[in-house]
Design goal:
By secondary structure, the chain is an alpha/beta fold. Helices cover 44% and strands 15% of the residues. α5 packs antiparallel against α9, α7 runs antiparallel to α17 and α10 crosses α12. It is built from 17 helices and 14 strands. The chain has an eight-stranded mixed beta sheet, sandwiched between helices. A hairpin with a 3-residue loop joins β8 and β9. It is globular and about 50 Å long. The longest helix has 19 residues. It has a single domain, classed as Alpha/Beta hydrolase fold, catalytic domain (Rossmann fold, 3-Layer(aba) Sandwich). It comes from Coccomyxa subellipsoidea. This is Fungal lipase-type domain-containing protein.
Amino acid sequence: MLQSERTEKAPAADAAAEDPEKQALPQIIARPWQEVESAGQPIVQTAARWQSRVAAYARSSFLSAYAAIVDNTLVALLQALRLDDLFRRATPWLEDRLASLTGSWHVMADGRKLSYSLVNNTSPDFSIPRQYSAAEVLAGGAEVSGDAAGPAAGYSPSVAHFLSLCMKLVYEGEDIIQDTVEARWGLRFHNYFHTGTDSFTVAVPEGGGAAAFVPRTRAALLSSPHALILVFRGSEPTNLINLRSSGRISMTERKGLGRVHDGFFGALFHDDEESGVLFDDVISAIEIADPSGKKPLYLAGHSLGAALAILFAQVAACRELPIADRIAAVYGFAPPRVGDKEFARRFAATYNATASLGRRHAFRVCHGADIICHLPPLMLQYADAGKEVFITSTGRVLLNPKEVKRWHNIEGWGFIPLYLYKLLAGVFDRREGALRSLYRVFLLVTFPGLTDHWPADYEGKLRKALIRDAGGKSTGGL
């Protein structure tokens, strides 16, 4: 009798699990930025709900709790003293001073010396390793790795590293990007896109929603003999303060997409008086760069740029634009979460559920204890989009979901000892100078959630893994 009752109840339980309305989060968790009706409820109950929500977030890892306290305290202090605006205005001066200190100038063909950005000043190596050539790495579409039937299907270590170089390079000014792409890589530079000059707050078109923060955006369009590369830049360190302090992380339902972060959507579709709509400009530039429409397109970006690459790819597919069929792969490095589970489901169905292995694959590449990969929190109904590639603090590149999950726990709870390990390892790494080590110590004390977020860490570890797995050495300097 008991066995029969269990059998009868099982389908009902499965049905309940499949019903999202029955699994809906409490209102105070689902929409924490809105006031929750608490009339007639004791204040103790309301406080208990908030306490439960904070405790759930803190339990996710030691890093989350540590970063939430330290980062938010410092951000509030910087804003109160108006130092964030001061840092942004002082950025060019700081870049020149650091270039003078380290001697890391970019020398143009005409003899001019240009300083690197704050992001790359301590690691301005944009050389192509001898394991591949820039002209041929994207030949024939995305390569299929040896584990074609497993979680690594469609992933290519050489493609991943090359696109990580591109996402690192796009943090530089237009002159340095063009010189590196054409004079040093032997490729073609087509366009440099930008929206506005500062971050701003604005209503978002196409479905409404008011973004608390619409970041200024930069992107570059390059091409090799075999493919086009569209790479979006992330936030500059001084502007990242504004991005992290945006109080309301809101989503709005978008037709055919699901619910999407308003700030990311606004970055692509805000009609800027200075530069127009970024999405439309990029589509036009791609059509001009390849009139035949035959070259595959690779999308990449870091941080905010990774979110924009993911969103761009899905919008193009949702609108059934011809360019969507040409997207061979999307590599998002350190990507924040872009939308809800419906958006993630649609994105996976578009780019990771094709019978044609090696094409239309999308990867979210995460490193160590990078907190940006975990934001906005899952409890706000956001979801991860794309197959995860995880780079451990020890330099391993993992694609197996079980291994990835295990290492997320190791990196989160073992953040301090692993970070000390990286500091010591940097002493013996010729690619890591003394100033980069000082950066690491500074971030550990001030913004611990960003210690593993640096573009150079992603590119450097992917370079080492590529060279190690190929059993060779990098020549550098190309």
